[in-house]
Write a structure and sequence with these properties.
The chain is α/β, with parallel strands linked by helices and 201 residues long. The protein has one domain (2-64, 94-107, 130-199): Isochorismatase-like (Rossmann fold, 3-Layer(aba) Sandwich). It is built from 5 helices and 6 strands, in the order αβαββαβαβαβ. It has helices at residues 3-6, 42-55, 124-132, 145-158, 179-190; strands at residues 17-22, 60-65, 106-109, 137-143, 162-171, 193-195. Helix 4 (145-158) packs parallel to helix 5 (179-190). It is globular. The two termini are 14 Å apart. Bound molecules: pyrazine-2-carboxylic acid and zinc ion. Zinc ion is lined by residues 65, 67, 73, 84-85, 110. Zinc ion binds at residues 65, 67, 73, 84-85, 110.
């Protein structure tokens, strides 16, 4: 099917590639405390990406939003958000249905009261592990496009990783209607390459 035409868009996975799954947690799904519209729709797509990487024995990493009860980003503390992803709560658990292998290293962010934790790289262990695994190209998707995905992608680019943005496995909070779109444009302008699952071979 259109093999010739689409070959230029195909991406061959290999050594140095890794998948980074951002904050696919119950509180960001419909019904959760900080629900992202269609947040649940990233789950089956991300499961496919996870399969692509694990089948090739390429590493998968995950981040999780993991806040103390009095986190500074909560409305009660003068922040913008309802209480969400409280460490150890059901809302902070990874979405049921997300097939993260048990061996996947998990990096918690926003664990300190004063630290918003939008970027996975605020946890210094993430970059350390990526270096140890020899990662040079990061495939990044998850929740939410306009916060943790945006900040993590920008930091990854600043750290000189090549970044492939999984446009079919991200969704935005959209506090303002265009936030998600603007975030995607910003990431692409900065150097992220937008891809979809169909491009992976
Ligand atoms: C996030 C808002 C607040 C995110 C986390 O994971 O994108 N957004 N905390
Ligand atoms: Zn948060």
């Amino acid at each position: 099917m259109n093999n010739k035409k689409n070959n230029a868009d195909k991406i061959e996975l290999g050594l140095g590639d890794a998948l980074l799954v951002i904050d696919i947690q119950n509180d960001f799904l419909p019904g959760g405390r900080l629900a992202v519209t269609e947040g649940d729709q990233v789950i089956p797509v991300m499961n496919n990406y996870i399969d692509c990487f694990t089948q090739r024995q390429l590493p998968v990493f995950a981040t999780r939003d993991w806040h103390p009860k009095n986190h500074g980003s909560f409305i009660k503390q003068g922040g913008p958000w309802p209480e969400h992803c409280i460490a150890g709560s059901t809302g902070a658990e990874f979405a049921r249905g997300l097939h993260l292998p048990a061996t996947v290293p998990v990096f918690s962010t926003g664990i300190e009261v004063e630290n918003d934790g939008y970027s996975g790289f605020e946890n210094p262990d993430l970059n350390k592990q990526l270096q140890q695994f020899g990662v040079s190209r990061l495939f990044i998707g998850g929740l939410a496009t306009d916060y943790c995905v945006l900040k993590t992608v920008c930091d990854a680019l600043d750290l000189n990783y090549q970044v492939l943005l999984l446009t079919d496995a991200i969704r935005a909070v959209n506090v303002h209607r265009q936030d998600g779109e603007q975030a995607i444009n910003k990431m692409i302008l900065k150097g992220a390459i937008p891809i979809t699952l169909a491009m992976i071979q």
